[in-house]
Protein: diacylglycerol O-acyltransferase
Amino acid sequence: MNQHSQPAAPMTRRDYAWHRMDTDNNIMVINSILLFEGPVDMERLVSTIAQRLPNYPRFTQKVELRRGRPRWVEDQHFNITDHIKLEKMAQDVSRDALQGHLTRLAHLPLAGGRPLWHMTVLDRVNGGHAIVFRVHHCITDGLGLVHVLNHLTDDNGLHCRTPSPADHPHRASVVQNAVCSALVRGISNLKIAFHVTRLSMLWPDARTPLKNRMYGEKQLVWLPPLQMERVRAMSKRMGVTLNDVWVAAVSGALRTYLEQRGQHVDGRALRAAVTFNLREKANAFQLGNEFGLVAVDLPTNVGDAVTRLQQSSARMTAIKRSHQPRATMAFLSIAGCLPTALQHFALNLFTSKGSVVLTNIEGPGGRRYLAGSRMTDLICWVPQAGKLGVGLAFISYAGQIQLALFVDKEQVPDPERLMELTYAAFDELEEATRELAPEHEGAAVALAELGSP
Structure:
């Protein structure tokens, strides 16, 4: 038994739904890459991860069914070196080569019968080194993953074996929500049931190539980061959130992309599944999945950039005030109780209503160091489920925002073009909002509103 051995623990039905969600076309793995300055010291790196990562039991446990119930069970043969592999590069890896390397890894399922995560270390990347960190979604969501990354890393280069006690998973305590009355809970449950029914009865959105049948050939792309202050300035000028700006920019990019491919864009709008965090940030150390996917009609049928931003903000605000996020989280819990085939049928029913997945993640606010090496960039790609094959992610790190795209090439054969158009859409919004009278200048937009998985 390893030194971090934990007793078996029940797995939530929601996490079990994610565990069973893998298909040939969509693997439920969160792919991320951490880029670092300087050469890699593998002995120091492995030692650091071996000391810190097992502080989260899920990283030394595997999933087993016991008496028909899913449980997290300690892997008695756990060995950290099975999960961290060095790939030596013959020469310094260019961005294009790195993108191809990541795409190859993203097609690989994680090894079964052991904890569902893996790190691939690339020793020669852009003058430094990189770690490809792959975690199955059943272990955690985006907010939990950031908690893990903060615990693995330090806020300075003075590395030591012992992690910072701040937010240490062994010292953290659960923040409890206020207890509601039975009447309030009953009304809330009725609203959740209403939204589950409503979502199942939605008409599918516009028929475009984004709804082509998937064949499982994926590609991951990204471009240099945006500066946080640029996006924050846009949000302040308009009195909206950073997430509203993100939704509006993606809407503009999708509109232009489809128009350039000969599609009619002024009719029915595209619909997105947007992730919506439902967890207290202080409870992120618990890992697991605690978020909803909300169905948002993107203003892709609107030509004016400012109007798109206003409509994006209005629709996101309405959803925040509804029970729709909790309804989709409840749906996943129900799906985890169904036979596997029925779960996939129900998931396909829901995901057929939309075309893309949008997520945003609040990453570390300051520079982080792992085993003494400074992390320069953090990029994350979230998986899609069911019939969805296009996912765009927005993650902040140390004053910059990294945009990343993960697509099925049957739906987006030229993902670099869509990524370029997303950056161009931010430029368009910046120019359009600057020309307006500063009616909402100075509106407080909390960075915490980035906090979706």
The radius of gyration is 21 Å. The first strand starts at residue 9 and ends at 10.
